[in-house]
Automatic annotation (TrEMBL), chain B:
Protein name, entry field: NTF2-related export protein
Function: Has a role in nuclear-cytoplasmic transport of proteins and mRNAs.
Organism annotation: Anas zonorhyncha
Keyword Oxidoreductase: no
CDD domains: NTF2
Superkingdom of the source species: Eukaryota
InterPro entries referenced in this protein's UniProt entry, alphabetically: NTF2 (IPR045875), NTF2-like_dom_sf (IPR032710), NTF2_dom (IPR002075), Nuclear_transport_factor_2_euk (IPR018222)
Amino acid sequence: IAFDVEAPTTLPPCKGSYFGSDDLKALVLRFLQQYYSIYDSSDRQGLLDAYHDGACCSLSIPFGHQNPPSALLLSPPAMRFKLLKHTRLNVVAFLNELPKTQHDVNSFVVDVCAQTVSGGDGRQIPRLGALCIVNDELFVRNATTEEIRKAFVMPAPTPSSSPVPTLSA
Amino acid sequence: MTSLHKTDFKTYVDQACRAAEEFVNIYYETMDKRRRVLTRLYLDKATLVWNGNAVSGQEALNEFFEMLPSSEFQINVLDCQPVHEQATQSQTTVLVVTCGTVKFDGNKQRYFNQNFLLTAQATPTNTVWKIASDCFRFQDWAS
């Protein structure tokens, strides 16, 4: 007599980016490439075209990874409201205050879930005809040793011929 | 007009945060301790993208969660935002982002990021929040 009560211990294999379709993939990758080339430039003002008028943006930085707190890291409502940037102008002004960056486009993992795009930093792009960001939840953590080792190894895609990158909304 | 608009937005944010906090407590407790009923938290046509694997619909979700080893989740960060009605056909929708650690039975403990779109489903008696989409990633999935 045998009983099959063995609990599973095998996880499904992890796969790379999920786009849903090739059309969506091309559209989203083009958007991200333009977005980050402006983001990494000396002036992020050009990102105004990337955001919806009523866009929101917030930033999370987990700390104490080694010793996670048992309670949720939640700010009191008033503080939380202050930390949430609302409307396109406020979002871009906030992004302009963040330190200068260099992104390794080859390291991106992009998932398109329903009409949601989320990568390591949880960005969402629900309008597809003319892409624009409605919700932006920026998540910053330390890179792992492995990620640091692999970063910027591949050459970045050839930059466009125009010196100032633009977003076609 | 502007101040009225601001008040409205603040109300949305408060609503989003309350829904997100309650949701996160219920979701991970159900995931860890009552996995069989987890899909009740999802819309009939909900989509899950789990480390690049797409799963859609109640039946497929049920099968998927049954196959996952038992889990112990710990949430370190929770963030939420109301989603603009223009992006959701006026459905009240909240974006919830979490990060933390998970230990699946027989596997090492790992860091993960997850994000959910929750929509408010009005019934004659009350409002129930359901998951419209769910996206889960191990932070070190490639290694």
